[in-house]
Specification:
This protein is α+β, with helices and mostly antiparallel strands and 409 residues long. The chain has helices at residues 6-27, 30-34, 96-101, 106-133, 230-233, 273-286, 301-313, and strands at 36-38, 42-44, 47-55, 77-84, 86-95, 141-147, 150-154, 169-174, 182-195, 198-203, 216-219, 260-262, 296-299, 320-322, 328-332, 335-339, 347-351, 356-366, 375-376, 382-395, 402-405. The strands form 4 sheets. Strands 12-21-17-13-16-15-14 form a 7-stranded mixed sheet. A 6-stranded antiparallel barrel has the order 6-7-10-9-8-11. Strands 1, 5, 18, 19 and 20 form a 5-stranded mixed sheet that branches. Strand 9 and strand 10 form a beta hairpin. Helix 1 packs parallel to helix 4.
Length: 409
């Protein structure tokens, strides 16, 4: 029987749990799995500097008459994106009683800790994936109607889809008019039943009197600190929290810094093959990438259901494609369409992985700079460990990405 103390307990977390934890977090969602990790970009302070190729040699291949004047010289055009690192954390806590009860048996300790570590891994993966689909605000739900402590919320597209569960979550309510004013600070929210206009929510405090449709809840104190996601990147607009533009580059005056968007979220239409193909055509025409570089399409499960329905109505066979990593997708024009439970509804993203990267100062790791993974919790007979990740998702070719939006599900 091996003796268990805080040192060996910390080694259990680092040696036994960290490697599989990283694999789970990095590989169990197709979007994260397909992005190139890059920890070699120039880091200046707290930011990554990412070089962008934005224009070609304008005089290349210019014809001239015999002994005519040679064309003017030119060069490739470059710019740079500045990507601030985002710092995300997950803390677990183990009571002193558990540690003492299992200190003489390493196997017993591992079993006692496993549920906390596996739960933290699962929930961190879900949170990171949610942020990877968001627009930087990481909205959990959007206010629709109601007052007091009973309201209705949705996903801002009219769907009964939110990231709020049946367990009370501590959140802030943010005013959508400026994306900064906190209307309700450090309150709680939990989800109830679906209704025609969204999901019923029970709040810990009466909602602010200045509420408006589209105001949104975020995890407490996270606004502006969450990772950048697809909704911010695959767009023809500046992200809502970044008036200076994505990675410090504004859309205005930079047509090459816009994604290829077909459709409109304010006017829902039925899914059509022609509109799906139009996104692919626009991506190929506007960028240095073509159809062969689009590795997959990403959508909600309901959107994939609509694609099956469209194929049935048009009497087209539905072919299933197998992707590396065990993923499975339905085929459209040689491109697998893959469902993700946290994908934004009413749209299909078309992804060129080479246009996206995960910039990292640190992969997922346990905080142990002081030499201890497990640290005593002040005024409590318990010990805690903190999992962290430093980095964000960067885009190096925004015009190579596309989305079909405003599609009925």
């Amino acid at each position: 029987m091996a003796n268990m103390n805080l040192t060996t307990a910390a080694n259990v977390l680092k040696t036994f749990y960290l490697p599989p934890l990283r694999r789970l977090l990095n590989n169990q969602t197709i979007f994260w799995n397909r992005l190139e990790r890059n920890e070699n970009f120039n880091v200046e302070g707290k930011n990554f500097t990412v070089p962008l190729h934005v224009s070609r040699h304008t005089q290349a291949g210019a014809g001239r008459a015999e002994e005519g004047t040679l064309p003017a010289k030119d060069s490739q055009g470059y710019n740079q994106a500045v990507v601030p690192a985002k710092y995300i954390y997950t803390r677990i806590q183990i009571s002193g009683q558990v540690i003492r009860a299992t200190k003489s048996n390493a196997g017993a300790f591992i079993r006692a800790v496993r549920s906390e570590v596996e739960g933290a891994t699962r929930d961190t993966k879900r949170s990171a994936n949610r942020q990877a689909h968001g627009d930087g605000r990481d909205a959990l739900a959007y206010y629709v109607s109601g007052s007091g402590t009973s309201v209705v919320a949705d996903d801002n597209l009219g769907n009964s889809f939110t990231h709020v569960g049946p367990k009370a979550t501590t959140v802030d309510l943010i005013d959508v008019s400026d994306n900064s004013t906190v209307l309700n600070n450090s309150t709680t929210i939990l989800a109830g039943a679906d209704v025609a206009t969204g999901v019923t929510m029970t709040l810990g405090d009466s909602i602010s009197g200045s509420k408006a449709d589209g105001d949104y809840w975020v995890l407490e104190d996270t606004l502006g600190n969450q990772m950048t996601g697809l909704e911010a990147i695959v767009s023809a607009s500046n992200p809502p929290l970044l008036s200076g533009g994505l990675h410090g580059i504004a859309v205005s005056g930079n047509n090459w810094w816009q994604s290829q968007i077909v459709g409109d979220d304010t006017s829902m239409v039925d899914l059509r093959f022609a509109n799906m193909q139009r996104v692919i055509s626009k991506m190929s025409q506007a960028s240095d990438y073509d159809k062969d570089d689009i590795e997959f399409g990403l959508a909600s499960y309901f959107m994939i259901d609509k694609y099956y329905e469209l194929c049935a109505n048009e009497r087209r066979a539905v072919n299933v494609m197998q992707l590396d990593g065990g993923y499975e997708g339905v085929e459209f024009s040689g491109i697998p369409l893959v469902a993700d439970a946290q994908a934004k509804h009413n749209r299909i993203y078309f992804i060129v992985p080479d246009a996206l990267k995960i910039c990292r100062m640190s992969d997922f790791d346990w905080m142990d700079d002081d030499g201890a993974v497990l640290n005593r919790v002040v005024n409590t007979d318990a010990y805690e460990a903190t999992l962290f990740h430093y980095g964000d998702i960067a885009c190096v070719a925004r015009n190579a990405l596309g989305a079909l939006v405003g599609q009925n599900e």
